[in-house]
Write a structure and sequence with these properties.
Blueprint (H helix, E strand, L loop, with lengths): L2 H5 L5 H17 L1 H7 L4 H10 L17 H14 L1 H6 L1 H12 L2 H12 L4 E4 L14 E5 L2 E8 L10 E8 L5 E7 L5 E3 L16 E8 L4 E3 L7 H30 L16 H35 L4 H32 L16 H11 L4 H14 L15
Parallel strand pairs: 1-4, 2-4
Antiparallel strand pairs: 2-3, 3-7, 4-5, 5-8, 6-7
Helix pairs in contact: 2-4, 2-5, 5-9, 5-10, 7-8, 7-9, 9-10, 9-11, 9-12, 10-11, 11-12, 11-13
Length: 406
């Protein structure tokens, strides 16, 4: 099947949204309770697996929907509006699906079948402590017909919910960087829910420990073959989270304004839901949420073009598409973060002090947006955008965090 054959079968967006709307509504109904009682969304992610949401991007022939990237991120924003935690928890999963979709079909087929059947992946890339930038202490060692993996990862978003772990490691025998796709439910894997951030607290972003865990031969992938627009893709998921947080804040505050009975003597003297200044606050925040979503979907279009060129033989066109995808995702990140943070903070101007009631948890929208916006620091993305605009400098595609020398 060629790329053109596949994308001639892209499903109708309205039909996709109608299909998943009832599940997203159910997820949204329980979001406040999960936040207040710190209930991890195992059940809700199970609904998404059973419904085929996690297989959106998987071709129809392998049990998925064959959705385009624009459709995937459109629906991820809807999911993030229902619960930003769940959208981010699936970040590593959708990235690995994309990687195996871009890979030669003989290599990716076994994984596409698994993902089409509802299996999901988590993330195991970042290490904390004394590891230097560019290094990894997680090692993959040949062992019989397969491999074993040893090490420890943090920021393991979504791994606690997943069937597989997309892990960045180094081969002990050759020193080559690899991706190890590791079965999560096995004796050599320990997954801890020890993420202590003030936002996105239900994403399962904690520690994963690998102690002689088994890696099947098909689970070892040379890192240099990773799909080229992966950095743009990972950022786009966070852009979707930011867009969803803004939309959720507008939804929840609007509901509070509509039912509010108490007003201020120095206000308009009308019911709060008719107060022109309050309506302006809500309308402005709605515009911010709209802008964040539009920026994210525009960047998703650039990522879609990078996917399409990855399936062809024109290297120059693929280079251009990957540069455009990276710059678009960075621009969307800066825009979505600014707009989401303004929306989720400014909306409190539409309500009184009662809006700070912890029972309402309206602050979670700002906390979640602030946490998502802190990934991949904005200041560096702004510099990269400026350097490209002024000097034509190509963006950085792969970056890591670690110890630096004084």
């Amino acid at each position: 099947m060629t790329v053109h054959d596949h994308w001639s079968e892209v499903p109708d967006t309205a039909e996709l949204k109608a299909r998943f709307r009832p599940i997203l509504e159910r997820i949204a109904e329980g979001a406040l309770r999960r936040e207040r009682e710190r209930i991890l969304p195992f059940e809700e992610i199970g609904w998404l697996k059973e419904s085929g949401f996690t297989a959106l991007r998987v071709p129809v022939e392998y049990g998925g929907s064959g959705a385009s990237l624009v459709q995937v991120f459109d629906l991820l924003i809807d999911l993030a509006e229902a619960d930003t935690n769940i959208a981010q928890a699936l970040r590593g999963h959708f990235a690995l699906v994309e990687d195996r979709l871009v890979a030669p079909r003989a290599e990716g087929e076994i994984w596409l079948k698994r993902f089409g059947a509802g299996e999901t992946a988590g993330n195991g890339w970042t290490e904390v402590g004394a590891v230097k930038i560019g290094d990894t202490n997680t090692k993959v060692t040949p062992d019989g017909d397969g491999f074993r993996i040893d090490g420890e990862k943090y920021y393991s978003t979504g791994t606690i919910f997943a069937d597989w772990i997309d892990t960045y490691a180094t081969r002990a025998d050759t020193g080559a960087p690899v991706i190890a796709i590791v079965k999560a439910d096995q004796p050599g894997i320990e997954r801890r829910d020890d993420w202590t951030g003030f936002g996105q607290r239900l994403t399962g972003t904690g520690t994963t420990v690998y102690s002689g865990a088994v890696v099947e031969p098909e689970g070892i992938v040379p890192f240099e073959t990773r799909f080229r627009y992966q950095t743009a893709f990972y950022q786009l998921v966070l852009d979707a989270v930011l867009s969803g947080a803004a939309a959720a804040a507008v939804r929840d505050v609007s509901a509070q304004v509509a039912r509010r009975k108490r007003g201020f003597s120095h206000g308009s003297g009308t019911a709060v839901r008719h107060d022109p200044q309050v309506l302006q606050v809500v309308g402005r925040a709605r515009a911010f949420a709209f802008g964040a979503r539009a920026a994210t979907l525009e960047a998703a279009r650039a990522a879609q073009r990078a996917y399409e060129t990855s399936q062809g033989a024109d290297r120059e066109a693929d280079d251009r598409a990957n540069i455009e995808a990276e710059l678009a995702s960075a621009a969307a990140q800066v825009s979505a973060a600014d707009l989401a943070l303004r929306a989720t903070g400014d909306l409190f101007n539409a309500l009184g002090a009662s809006a700070s009631d912890t029972g309402l948890a309206l602050d979670r929208h700002w906390r979640n947006a602030r946490t998502a916006a802190s990934h991949n620091p904005l200041i560096y993305k702004e510099r990269i955008l400026g350097d490209n605009t002024v000097n034509g400098t190509e963006p950085v595609y792969v970056w890591q965090i670690g110890q630096v020398t004084e």
